[in-house]
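In this section we walk through a basic example: taking a raw amino acid sequence and producing a predicted 3D structure, encoded as discrete structure tokens. The instruction is simple. Fold the sequence below.
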Amino acid sequence: MRVAGDAPSLSVGDAAALRRQISSWGAELGFAAIGVSGIDVAAAAPGLLRWLDLGRHGEMDYMAKHAALRLAPQALLPGVRTVIAARLPYWPPAADALAVLGDDRLAYVSRYALGRDYHKTTRHRLRKIAARLQEAAAKLGQPCSCRVLSDSAPVLETEFARQSGVGWRGKHTLSLTREGSWHFLGEIYTTLPLPADPPAEEHCGDCRRCLDVCPTAAIVAPYELDARLCISYLTIELPGSIPPSLRPLIGNRIYGCDDCQLHCPWNRFARMGDADFAVRNGLDAAPLTALLAWSESEFDSRLAGSAIRRIGHERWLRNVSVALGNAHPGTPGVVTALRSRLDHPSPLVREHVVWALARHQAAV
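The resulting token sequence is shown next.
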């Protein structure tokens, strides 16, 4: 949402009143927290540039291509002076995550992707706040511009969450709070000069559970992630072949990975998430053999409105094939299901099916 205009100075009282209204609107719309910060990201720049220089972004070329935009909020909204950061919980009522991970007949889907695509929900609600903010500002004779974002443009979301007090950056590199990490972030860039909130204090202490439980050791040091090793990257972002050495470590995870969050002590205090993210299609505990049987049209129709749909049917079959290759030898139906995909037109799918079948044949 963009509305042209300048943002003259607000009186201290008017700015404070608008800030209170923003929190009230956010609570009404289901956000767990709303914070305000400035736009200076200089403190985060060295970490981002080092991560890119080390190649830890893998094949996510857009991370390097748009790095300059992440470090220049004014390029996304000319005249921006304030960032409003928001946190929306998503932890769904679902089958026990650890139990699913422990059952190699079932598919594990990252909890954030079990329901509706978060981009749509988060942005829709933030647009409501932005519209109300512009209306309230106009009544004060303060026209402003706003731009709503939620993982939809090059933004240092975790950094703005930290600066605005919405959450600190955990050692797993995700946004973390005393209510855990099962939440989405979103932002409103605005040209209004609003008072900033105190930054979030870190409360990870000496804990390193997220590092110790990572299946592929992708968290190479506290606050440092090598995406090339991360199961979320391998199953979602990587377009081609999954490195054979990493396939056995993926287990039954077919879309994303939550291990670092499932073992984080702060997530004991997580509250139930928004109803928009309730489980669809039984994906919290679906049999792998059933998911491999989905046709492309079935994949598209079942996952309409889901974040999963963007990886496409080919990668879906690739991921499920790897998970079936990791199933216990002799698990009923696994070999039959894999053989049904041996003639798939995609070389990528066939490669992973052959690998999976070889795993089972070697165990005979």
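Looking at the output, two observations stand out. The longest helix spans residues 118-139. The CA atoms of residues 234 and 243 lie 9 Å apart. In the next section we compare this with other chains.
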